[in-house]
Amino acid sequence: MSAEVGVASQFPFPTLEHIPSVPLVVATLGPATDSVIDAIAAQAEIARIHGVHNPIDKYEQRAAAFLAAPNPHDRDRRVFADLEGFGVRTSPNTRTRVIGPGDIVEFLFQGYGEVDGVVNVQDDVSQFVETEHLVSMGDSKVWMTVEDVVKGGIVRCRVNRTPRDEAWELVANKGINFPQTEFPDVLIDRDIERMHELADSAFVPDYIGLSFTQTPELLEQARKLAHQLGMHSVNFIVKIENQVGARNVRSIIEALDGGDATMAAFGDMVPELVHKPKITNVLVDIHTYSAYFRRNWMACTGLGQSLLESPEPSTSETVALGLIARLGGWLCLSGDELAMNFKYPVQAVQALRDIVDESADLAALTLAGMPKNGAQR
After folding, report:
1. What is residue 202's DSSP assignment?
2. pLDDT digits over 281-338, tens only?
3. Distance (Å, rounded) from C-alpha 49 to C-alpha 198?
4. SS3 content of the chain, % helix, strand, coil (to 5)
5. What pTM did the predictor assign?
6. What CA–CA distance (Å, rounded) separates 175 from 8?
7. What is the DSSP track for 251-295?
8. What is the Cα–Cα distance from 140 to 145, expressed in whole angstroms?
């Protein structure tokens, strides 16, 4: 049965002895981090490498660099390969241009593959996307409204808001999120192909990320394929990024195995243009159900904007992240903060390291008698 957002309060709120793991630092790697990989690896336990910006050769290059970097603190390093998930993206041929409120933007629908009898719907998105649906880009820095859906895979949107209502750069192959639209929860062809590549790689990941998870079915499909490919020890990270996933968060977390985790992707799950309290409800639900079912969880930190202005997070960000870490949550720096040319990538990772180290002692006190992290049910 699907859980409504915010109903975790119906469960006994977990106490500290329910925390399933100690907090960890997760850093997203990309072109902008290659020159500082040693400094980042010294502070992070997990390298997140996204499939969108990293073909398999770049994935292997960055995984190898992270794992081989000096490890003065003898951290248990792991690799997190993030799948693309279903997505609507700007065309690879898109000319870089600036957009602002009132502008029209068109997106190319990339479609699904045939999985377990699910038909290919690449040329007909109208059954899912509707006019007036909200869409977002750049971790909700940009919001738009769907004006038209054109047969052949084009979604036409009007820009409602950009950061400070100023010009924002639109680039090729940039993904958008549909927080109000319910798509079929299936592995797309590109992700199936990527899992085959990962299985054959010299760096089989410790975790595979499932973007835009909406139901437990996507997790079951991915787990079945992983076993077929011989990746029996890989764990999965389900990413809650829209309203549908948030509504089903209890059943999704309940379906996880012991070493799996849930990621709260703050930016992409904003239900309306400005409605921060609902983000808090989703985060509380993810923590509460993760604690109840003894599962790992993490949060994207959203430090990007503050790190444009300062090498340190704000006081309010530090307090919020400290609370997440004290409750066993892993802290993940996203691609916007690290891999997309932000000004202070090394300082961002160091800030999270300091927060996690201060919180880990308290969280570690709760681990006595708990199942070993990574143990399967």
Report:
1. S
2. 888 899 889 988 989 999 887 665 666 667 777 888 888 888 889 888 999 987 665 6
3. 12
4. 35, 20, 45
5. 0.83
6. 31
7. HHHHT--TT-EEEE-TGGG--SSS-HHHHHHHHHHHHHHHHHTT-
8. 13
